[in-house]
Amino acid sequence: MNLSKTDPQIAKLIKLEEKRQTEVLEMIPSENYASRAVMEALGTVLTNKYSEGYPKKRYYQGNKIIDEVEILAIERAKKLFKVPHANVQPYSGSPANTAVYFALLAPLKDKIMGLSLAFGGHLTHGAPVSISGKYFKTVPYELGKDGWLDYDAIEKLAKSQKPKIIVCGFTAYPRKIDFKRFGQIADSVGAYLLADISHITGLIIAGVHPDPVPYADIIMTTTHKTLRGPRGAIIMVTEKGLKKDPELAEKIDKAVFPGLQGGPHDNQTAAIAVALRQAQGKPFKRYGEQIVKNSQALASSLNGFGFDLSGSGSDNHLILIDLRTKGVNGSVAAIALEVAGIVVNKNGVPFDTMPPFYPSGIRLGTPAITTRGMKEKEMKKIAKWISLAIDEVKNERFPTEKEARIQFMKGFRIRVEHNKNLKKIAQEVKNLTNKFPIP
Ligand code: DSN
């Protein structure tokens, strides 16, 4: 029986979410629209199978076909990224990074050096609240005053702290990463370099962002961001990594299974294989190029409206707006924009003095709207709407006390949902998104 008959409540919610995704501008930089082919592979009988182990070395029978699926995914990843080893089983990015640490670090002894969460690193790059920060020693680095990576400071810190893993690759950094310099720093202190390219993987494949493969030892990417696949992740080992540690691939595989996970999600593996195939060739290259063009066009228009952009702009898929100069809190702005049909996320900015739940900025990006075919012309319109929407809430006085903030946000949400000007923008957004159907 189909879903709408078996479970009308869930079926209805899915339909509503589909409508929401269609009508708004999805501008959270880690989000995208997976293709129909990817979703088709996800919703198949492959979800029924258990296949602990790796191709041709399984603990369960009946895996001949699953082996072929996983081998295809592995081979496509190796070919696309030009690496000698790929593990396609991690359930998502956080388990994948955790598996790398589990493979290589002694708990409570060895150090992970990653960009601080407050400066655009990920939770799993050593944040104290995450398993990466609780089970391992951590050495956080920060950005320079200009919002850019400060390689001299990173080198100095690495030399004094001697981490075993250095992580580069970020969730809220709008500029290119000098993987070569990171590789030199890691080599100089005998550390592994883990490049977490989750956000920018599509840009690397498209050739519009530097390639970490010659410089990193291990590369981790999620598969659902600029790669446009299903939720999931891939851990790759480079030639360089194998030279540094000939057992690196084996250690990573063992850490994923049986170290951290049980059976891989075979439907997810098949969908990853589909996404990797779709990322080969010219159309995907053009997609990556357009993401960056859109991001830069948007950044330049936002600059024109007086927004203060962290790192002074963007050369990837994302923009981090520091709203302190506008006197608007990030959580307030994010809600106002949502009412206006523009979906972004509140985000800390470098040297933020506000807590993560009420940060001073918003993060937005172009991967999903570029998938819909929008170009520079549309970015100008979007920048204008963002500016108008934030102007609507610029006189909201944000309380300093925690309790008062909770109360304020409740009232604010109700007020803002009735704001006529925001609703007018949402209608204009709907008119625009109508012209750019989700492929
Ligand atoms: N949650 C992702 C992001 O939004 O950047 C990272 O895992």
Automatic annotation (TrEMBL):
<comment type="subunit">
    <text>Homodimer.</text>
</comment>
<dbReference type="InterPro" id="IPR049943">
    <property type="entry name" value="Ser_HO-MeTrfase-like"/>
</dbReference>
<dbReference type="InterPro" id="IPR015424">
    <property type="entry name" value="PyrdxlP-dep_Trfase"/>
</dbReference>
<dbReference type="InterPro" id="IPR001085">
    <property type="entry name" value="Ser_HO-MeTrfase"/>
</dbReference>
<comment type="similarity">
    <text>Belongs to the SHMT family.</text>
</comment>
<dbReference type="InterPro" id="IPR015422">
    <property type="entry name" value="PyrdxlP-dep_Trfase_small"/>
</dbReference>
<dbReference type="InterPro" id="IPR039429">
    <property type="entry name" value="SHMT-like_dom"/>
</dbReference>
<dbReference type="InterPro" id="IPR015421">
    <property type="entry name" value="PyrdxlP-dep_Trfase_major"/>
</dbReference>
<keyword id="KW-0963">Cytoplasm</keyword>
<dbReference type="GO" id="GO:0035999">
    <property type="term" value="P:tetrahydrofolate interconversion"/>
</dbReference>
<keyword id="KW-0663">Pyridoxal phosphate</keyword>
<dbReference type="GO" id="GO:0005829">
    <property type="term" value="C:cytosol"/>
</dbReference>
<feature type="binding site">
    <location>
        <position position="117"/>
    </location>
    <ligand>
        <name>(6S)-5,6,7,8-tetrahydrofolate</name>
    </ligand>
</feature>
<protein>
    <recommendedName>
        <fullName>Serine hydroxymethyltransferase</fullName>
        <ecNumber>2.1.2.1</ecNumber>
    </recommendedName>
</protein>
<comment type="function">
    <text>Catalyzes the reversible interconversion of serine and glycine with tetrahydrofolate (THF) serving as the one-carbon carrier. This reaction serves as the major source of one-carbon groups required for the biosynthesis of purines, thymidylate, methionine, and other important biomolecules. Also exhibits THF-independent aldolase activity toward beta-hydroxyamino acids, producing glycine and aldehydes, via a retro-aldol mechanism.</text>
</comment>
<feature type="modified residue" description="N6-(pyridoxal phosphate)lysine">
    <location>
        <position position="225"/>
    </location>
</feature>
<dbReference type="GO" id="GO:0032259">
    <property type="term" value="P:methylation"/>
</dbReference>
<comment type="pathway">
    <text>Amino-acid biosynthesis; glycine biosynthesis; glycine from L-serine: step 1/1.</text>
</comment>
<dbReference type="GO" id="GO:0030170">
    <property type="term" value="F:pyridoxal phosphate binding"/>
</dbReference>
<dbReference type="Pfam" id="PF00464">
    <property type="entry name" value="SHMT"/>
</dbReference>
<feature type="domain" description="Serine hydroxymethyltransferase-like">
    <location>
        <begin position="3"/>
        <end position="386"/>
    </location>
</feature>
<keyword id="KW-0489">Methyltransferase</keyword>
<keyword id="KW-0808">Transferase</keyword>
<feature type="site" description="Plays an important role in substrate specificity">
    <location>
        <position position="224"/>
    </location>
</feature>
<dbReference type="InterPro" id="IPR019798">
    <property type="entry name" value="Ser_HO-MeTrfase_PLP_BS"/>
</dbReference>
<keyword id="KW-0028">Amino-acid biosynthesis</keyword>
<dbReference type="GO" id="GO:0019264">
    <property type="term" value="P:glycine biosynthetic process from serine"/>
</dbReference>
<keyword id="KW-0554">One-carbon metabolism</keyword>
<dbReference type="GO" id="GO:0008168">
    <property type="term" value="F:methyltransferase activity"/>
</dbReference>
<feature type="binding site">
    <location>
        <begin position="121"/>
        <end position="123"/>
    </location>
    <ligand>
        <name>(6S)-5,6,7,8-tetrahydrofolate</name>
    </ligand>
</feature>
<dbReference type="GO" id="GO:0004372">
    <property type="term" value="F:glycine hydroxymethyltransferase activity"/>
</dbReference>
<comment type="pathway">
    <text>One-carbon metabolism; tetrahydrofolate interconversion.</text>
</comment>
